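Give me the fold.
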Amino acid sequence: MRPLTFTIPKQLLKVGDKAVLEHIFHELPDQVDEVILVVKYLAGQIQDYFGEEFLGKKIHYVTQVSKDYGTWIALNEAKHLLGKEKFLVLLGDDILDKESIESCLEHDFSVLVKEVEDPRRFGVVLANEHGKILDFIEKPEEQISNLANTGVQVLDYRIFNYPARQHKNGEYYLTDSVARLAKDHDVFIKLAKSWISMATPEDLESINADFKAISSEK
């Protein structure tokens, strides 16, 4: 997202008239009354924007201190604030619809996926005919599945029994942990209705153009 993120974190870039992370707050299920935000880059801006409570949801901030990177590292930093109950994991820069996120809460363990035409830029999920996850493949070179992982997951404390292994690119992916969890427990997929994912300034420009078109039609 450079150069846009030289002075502002990606989570505060505007989609329509709201910051990306603000959209995410609006789509959180009503059952969620507390949010843990793991922050690092330009963290002060995020804390100033959302404060200690936003849209009726109490916010806890965890500053990532580990020098390692990856979704597993971020979750592990928040471990001390998570109890025995299941919790919802979301990425801070992807927007999904509330109904789809809520559907994940039907299971003890679940992952929200979206069918995509070209899965090579995403991690994909392999599942059986019952919707149970068999494995995850990060950015496959060949199209072995069109079910992209959106980053939304329902987990509980048992995920910490499966610490992620370092990927060849140096990162520690939460999907590695979930894949191993799925060998011992049933982890189900749920299909997302909508998913806004952006990786480049061009993506953001296109998304905002769509937002303006939708607004003008109302």
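The mean pLDDT is 91.
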